[in-house]
Design a protein that fits this description.
This protein has 395 residues and is an alpha/beta fold. It has helices at 2-17, 29-34, 52-64, 90-97, 107-130, 143-147, 149-164, 179-184, 187-198, 226-231, 245-257, 272-277, 295-302, 314-323, 364-371; strands at 22-27, 82-87, 136-141, 168-173, 202-207, 261-266, 284-286, 308-312, 327-328, 332-337, 344-349, 354-359, 382-384, 389-391.
Amino acid sequence: MAKENKKTREQSARTRLTKARRIIVKIGSRALAEGSGIARGQSTATATEPNIWSRLASDVATVTGASATSKRGKRKGKKQRSLVLVSSGAIAFGVKELGFRRRPKEMASLQAAAAAGQGILMHRYAEAFGSHGLSVAQVLLTHADLSHRDRANNARDALQKLLDLGAVPIINENDAVAVDEIRFGDNDALAAMVAPMCEADVVLLLSDVEGVLDPRGKRVSEIHSIDEANSWLKDGDSTLGTGGMRSKLEAAHRATLAGADVVIAAAHTPQVIQRVLAGEDIGTLLPGRGRRLRTRKHWIAYTLRPNGAAIVDAGAAQAISEEGRSVLCVGVLGIRGDFEVGDAITIADANGNTLARGLTRLSASDAARLASQRDHGARAPILIHRDDLVVLGKE
């Protein structure tokens, strides 16, 4: 009976994919490089056909109905699917173009490779997608763009206008100028950050693996526990990309909190986008949460980088975690880091367990001073108001 219920639940989740109207597809460096000859040290001109570019373009054209649309990308009488592509690959192409024998580690060389490779990457997309009547648009973002509220809203408006005009936005991190994004970021995380901005129904993470594998090496069709899935993974490294399955699972988890269904699948699977959106049992599905975390709270919790932390006592921890109360200075045991008013900080209990993230109303120095004053009279100062607080694991 339990197996039947599980099967029914999985079928229901897969069926939901067929109704998706806004899709984000992320494709990794290794998948693009394998399809372009780079990983084997070949010239980019000798890649076999049909290559990854033509297959991807054909897939996108089919799911968006490009062949049935007008020049402005509009289909009459039916709400059209729209698709955003988050693409790695600039550094991988630049490594080949500039004659590096392998992916460099020096920051300036990585930036140079990104600058040299981005034009090649977009040329490949423009050429392949153009043959199907699709216009592509380059959108380069840094973490600073998304962490600044006004700039993030501007990026959201630009993406929406591109989609309204029938174009396919191709998003990449601006690695030529974003120093710490090259060192610590990856486009799996970027796809998760873009999901709430686009109100995505589905996020499809394409890589060189068929999905998440269990300890027996068998593909898992559907995952409901990120912790369990992480326990199956083995550490590995890539010569071309920065992400791995662990980063994909973390990104997938964050995207599901924005309400999107997430599928991790192999880029080399024939017609992979069409088949996923047709509800076929391909890759590993992580169902979206029924109740979306509001865009602003998702931004606070999963886009902003905390500049410090506040350690709270047991009473405050319970009030925050179980009742969603504001963080009051009276319950703060200590302050970590040097933050200013409006910065994102982490809230943790005395044992170091992370409870929440939020935007502080006080600087670190003021918070530390007020926390040491245990008697505040009738009204205790607020460190983080509940409207600016995200309780992790609850919302």
